Automatic annotation (TrEMBL), chains A, B:
Protein name per its UniProtKB record: asparagine--tRNA ligase
Domain of life, per lineage: Eukaryota
GO cellular component, one term: mitochondrion
Similarity annotation: Belongs to the class-II aminoacyl-tRNA synthetase family.
Length: 502, 502
């Protein structure tokens, strides 16, 4: 069993002393994966591997197969000699086999090691006439109709592994910063302010009053408010959890079911309230640089494999290489990502003299075309836009003190815009002042003292304090890091209006 | 910034070389938590901490407060001298404050270090007259009506941290065993075989045909089948994900929304099929012992805090100490957890001469009273019961070869029973043989070639192979490890029939 030898000292204190027990490790461990075998230095090691044949080249006296067990984009070259007999002839792409043999130095180019097969057993055939996943280039659109089989393609498998690695790195980063991962509920009383975008649970009998929970239940659109309840006890909390939107509009950036990484935490008060927004942006930049750049993920095999999948993208090879280099630079450079205020962004957009489809005006939301220009043209990289007008932002954002050049109230918030993926993260300082929160809710027609939001007011009534938070679209982060064009290829089994397979 | 120094060598290969970049760490790091401060050796260190006052004892010239920031069950003793003036008088339990001062060796007993406060700022008052979370013992029932505030109690906060730690250890364990964490969907086409226990998404217009996805959508009751699709490419996959059951029955072991840890993976074929079930049980035992015992969680502060919360339990102090010792022994002992077949279990139950409420008969499911007796009386610890009759188990379990003493077909499966928490894990060898799967589905009135399960058959049609899997009730594991009596106290914001707050 591979023991976890890492333990940050601060976790150790809570977890207690790790007792050494000599469990019978052989009884518990699974055999090594291809990734593990290839990472070791042993040669002449006897191994047994099960997996799928990704390709096979049959010669007169020998056959060369590439075997994948899903553990890495790199397969294991398996060398079948003629004395293995008829069985090898049955092997086609997609066949599941079990092989026993020795790992030896490979005389061929393209791999350091290979497996000299002593024994082969066919576990499951794969009829090349009817198998929907053929060697030929398969379009994303075609594969979306084979949700159960498309993980067998290199791009989807690499994406699923990248999700796992990225989650792991984010977990490490946030644990080291003193955060607790909290499971907030999926079923909630909130209907996203009646916007009609929340999925509703059907009543259990034809009478609408027969609600399972006695009142209507919806699928959550954001975990923020629930996380705030937890941050008011646990201090620093986050979650990576599914969210849902019944949006009819179908774009390459939206899913009906998607995963959000959301965090909420308490901060030390500052004399200049705008400094909290700056610190919040810095923290988010650090979390992304730490988990994507410093972790090594950006240089990993799965990210390499994803950027090589040209069928996801119609841009030229050169443009694609440049796009990748920009992402690598963004997450590995010491240079801070620029921050500009909404008001400055509006000035830059007006100065550009571009004939925008949506007119630029202080007080209007930034549209996709504006965001795209700001990050892709003005900055050429990630960009924080901060301090938006209060009127176009949700009730819970903290009002800024009045500032020259801003006619109306702004709030301490930011959107992180990145080239290609658009808005990647949004966050804000939360309004912790009870009277200000009440005003803000009233201005949006909400009642802080009513049944619906009374609990949210309680968080401020009883020992509230300055706190901040953000939400990061996990599929968008994957798309940005892996150069994946459409969020439908950023989640194993995507759901959108009109489409839910399995 | 606390850097993550751990990297299992096998992950390294996929992630690429970790580049060293000297990011401006001060810009990104949050200030240390109380847990981090107490774990360090520094004294006379200047710190700034925000948090909540858990208790305050005011003397004539000095006041002693205990401050919590949610990072650990142990608070930080803060010493307020009289020159801090009026502000200290305002402090009551639950008040949110920011303190600046020096960490010094504590002259008092009960803590090694304390904070000598130089400055104190009140961030949020907490009116002792109206604050619902008073010092007096609060019952779990009372607290369930204050979902947003109950994380402020020691027991709920410890439970949330324990969830986070346990998840982290499980993630480490499974990553080291070569698994990928996969996000399977919450919205599915499956209605749990029409058992009426799946929540259904309401159509978006009054006409039932106006489905958002064109066909009815349900909330998943298990991620297994979807995970199987992924394991047929990625080899070893798992998830920790919400599941839903619209069960009207209300027990201390059931929630409408709960979290399942589910894993599926490929195995090397064996000549004796029953050996797969044995190996599967061994693996599950290793995963629990590794993540709960060997990780140190079982001896950690949060588990200690949870077992000390007597209000969760009506048993005597002595019985509770014994119950805890049994859990510690189970997860730290080298001794293998016993395995008995269903047939042996039935024989033992009959031999017991107990007057069971539900009669014991080969072919009937084991009832809670039977399971309780087997784990608590017969074994006094965790117990695997294996090889149940096929007729009482789901279609996807692998048929065993016929065996003496068993009149009907059994399947290669197990339930892990533990004292107090009951069935903790269930798993099986999955039926990988296409014809056997078809027979099994037909016997349960299902059509493998139909639209509904055609995809599941495809997994066997195209390169299938022997594979196994299990599902672990995450709340039940927490309840067992932390001695928590009711699963409603095992999740931050529980939902059950008639109850969904926030």
């Amino acid at each position: 069993m591979n023991r976890v030898s890492f333990r940050p000292c601060t976790l150790q204190a809570t977890l207690g002393k790790r007792r050494s027990i000599s469990t019978n490790t052989a009884r518990f461990a699974l055999p090594p994966t291809i990734l593990q075998i290839l990472a070791r230095n042993e040669v002449d090691e006897k191994v047994t591997v099960t997996g799928w044949v990704k390709s096979i080249r049959k010669q007169k006296r020998v056959a060369f197969g590439v075997l994948s067990d899903g553990s890495s984009p790199t397969g294991l070259q398996a060398v079948f000699h003629e004395d293995l007999g008829e069985r090898v002839k049955q092997i086609t792409n997609g066949t599941s086999i079990c092989v026993r043999g020795s790992i030896v130095k490979s005389p061929g180019s393209g791999q350091d090691k290979e497996l000299l097969v002593d024994e082969v057993e066919i576990l499951g055939e794969c009829d090349p006439e009817t198998y929907p996943i053929q060697k030929k280039t398969l379009t994303p659109e075609y594969l979306r109709d084979y949700t159960h089989l498309r993980p067998r393609t290199g791009a989807i498998a690499a994406m699923v592994r990248l999700r796992s690695h990225l989650m792991r790195e984010l977990n490490n980063y946030f644990a080291n910063q003193g955060f607790t991962y909290a499971h907030t509920p999926i079923l909630t009383s909130g209907d996203a302010e009646g916007g009609g975008e929340a999925f509703r649970i059907a009543p259990v009998s034809p009478l609408p009053s027969h609600e399972f929970f006695t009142h209507p239940a919806y699928l959550t659109v954001s975990h923020q408010l629930h996380l705030e309840a937890l941050s008011h006890s646990l201090g620093r909390v986050y979650t990576l959890s599914p969210c849902f939107r019944a949006e009819r509009g179908v774009t390459r950036r939206h899913l009906a079911e998607f995963w959000m990484f959301e965090a909420e935490w308490n901060v030390i008060p500052t004399t200049d309230p705008r400094a909290q927004t700056v610190a919040l942006c810095d923290f988010v930049e650090g979390a992304i640089k730490g988990s994507v750049g410093e972790s090594g993920i950006i240089h990993g095999e799965d990210v390499n494999a994803l950027w090589q999948h040209r069928e996801h993208d119609s841009s030229s090879e050169d443009d694609r290489a440049k796009a990748r280099e920009a992402v690598v630079l963004a997450v590995t450079s010491n240079a801070a990502w620029p921050k500009i205020s909404y008001s400055e962004a509006v000035r830059e957009l007006l100065k550009s003299n571009i004939d925008w489809e949506f007119p630029v005006r202080w007080g209007s939301p930034l549209q996709t075309e504006h965001e795209k220009w700001l990050s892709e043209t003005l900055v050429g990289g990630p960009l924080f836009v901060t301090d938006y007008p209060a009127a176009i932002k949700p009730f819970y954002m903290r009002a800024n003190p009045a500032m020259e050049g801003e006619d109306e109230t702004t709030v301490g918030c930011f959107d992180l815009l990145v080239p290609h993926a658009g808005e990647l993260v949004g966050g804000s300082v939360r309004e912790e002042r009870l009277n200000k929160l009440k005003e803000s809710m009233q201005s949006k027609g909400m009642d802080m003292d009513g049944e619906r939001y009374g609990w949210y007011g309680d968080l401020r009534r009883f020992g509230g304090g300055p706190h901040v938070g953000f939400g990061l679209g996990f599929e968008r982060l994957l798309g940005w890091v892996g150069g994946i064009n459409n969020v439908r290829e950023c989640v194993p089994m995507p759901r959108w209006a009109g489409k839910m397979d399995l």
